[in-house]
Amino acid sequence: MSEKVFDRTELAKFDGQNGQPAYVAVDGVVYDVSDVEAWAGGKHHGNLAGQELTSVIDGQSPHGRKVLKKLPVVGQYHD
């Protein structure tokens, strides 16, 4: 089975609202943050699931990319 590819429109569907999983994209990889308590409801410190967040995690996040290692990868992001 090939890896799922998300574009901006497809990724936006996974916003953690109305029973949807919460996904975020960083540097071309889509991660599932649904089971991360800090992402409850698809929101985390003003950021929303269903978006590409490379600049946020690299420029604003105190923990940086190290937290990504713990997350399930669900696909690739190409816009």
UniProtKB/TrEMBL annotation:
Q: Which Pfam families match?
A: Cyt-b5
Q: Which residues cross the membrane?
A: none
Superkingdom, taxonomy of origin: Bacteria
Q: Which residue numbers delimit the Cytochrome b5 heme-binding domain? A: 6-78
What name does this protein carry? Cytochrome b5 heme-binding domain-containing protein
Recorded source organism is Levilactobacillus parabrevis ATCC 53295
